[in-house]
Design a protein that fits this description.
The protein has about 240 residues and is an alpha+beta fold. The protein has one domain: Sortase (Sortase, Chain: A), CATH 2.40.260.10. It contains 7 helices and 8 strands; from the N terminus they run ααααββαββαββββα. Keywords: Hydrolase, Membrane, Protease, Thiol protease, Transmembrane, Transmembrane helix. InterPro entries: Sortase (IPR005754), Sortase_A (IPR042007), Sortase_dom-sf (IPR023365). This is Class A sortase. One of its GO terms (biological process) is proteolysis.
């Protein structure tokens, strides 16, 4: 009887061990897919109240501390996602970019959203600078900017009260040391920063300010785009 019991225990432990090996193997094989899913599954509800609350939360602006998006960084960000300070939305219809905007450039924020690069930024005023990650996937976060952004495209920001329209005027690669491009300006503009394909330099997108309109008065198609899911409308099949 004791031998049979021991045999059953050994067989159970063997099965558990094999199961763990299979799970670990699947995790390694589908690491990128799982990481991408964790990012795109972040779908916060952005409201006037949540934007106001987001502006009141503290934020981290130490861009030097930003890490590349490995699996553990994304998993940690997704776990902490309820604490992100979301202050609006970014929409570039021609590039299939639709992202929440978070305060600051902490690793948690940039893993799931576009991040403001200076404190106290205001849409439609001065240089509204945003950073975002360039991923292996061409469809997530700021990755579409590398592949699809072109001068002349329209960029929208929303804080749920108003929609701010910009026209893309510059698309160029700059050294990572050119940090002055996100400095404040008197002229209203938008600046988007992401990595190039190597990660050594930066892609800079800049847009000139066009107009501000009440959210309720924005074109119906723009409101429809803002109502869509974040960065999930473009699929790998579209590449």
């Amino acid at each position: 009887m004791a031998q049979k019991k021991t045999h059953r225990v050994r067989r159970l432990l063997t099965q558990i061990g094999l199961g763990l090996v299979i799970l670990i193997s699947l995790g390694l094989i589908f690491n990128e897919q799982i990481k991408d899913w964790m990012i795109t599954s972040y779908q916060p509800k952005v409201t006037q109240a949540s934007v106001k609350q987001g502006h009141q939360q503290p934020a981290d602006y130490d861009f030097k501390a930003v890490k590349s998006l490995d699996f553990s960084t994304v998993a940690k960000a997704r776990w902490n996602s309820n604490h992100l300070a979301i202050v609006g939305e970014l929409l570039i219809p021609d590039d299939d970019v639709h992202l929440p905007i978070g305060q600051g450039v902490s690793n948690d924020t940039l893993a799931l959203a576009a991040g403001t690069m200076r404190s106290n930024q205001q849409m439609g005023t001065g240089n509204y600078a945003l950073a975002g990650h360039h991923m292996t996937s061409k469809t997530i976060l700021f990755s579409p900017l590398y592949w699809k952004a072109r001068v002349g495209q329209t960029i929208y920001l929303s804080d749920q009260h108003n929609v701010y329209e910009y026209k893309m005027t510059v698309r160029k690669f700059i050294p990572a040391t050119d940090v002055q491009v996100v400095d404040q300006t008197k002229k209203p503009m938008i600046t988007l920063i992401t990595c190039d394909a190597t990660g050594a330099n930066r892609l800079m997108i800049r847009g000139s300010y066009v107009r501000k309109m009440a959210y309720k008065n924005a074109p119906s198609q723009v409101k429809k785009e803002f109502a869509a899911k974040f960065n999930n409308r473009y699929t790998e099949a579209d590449e």
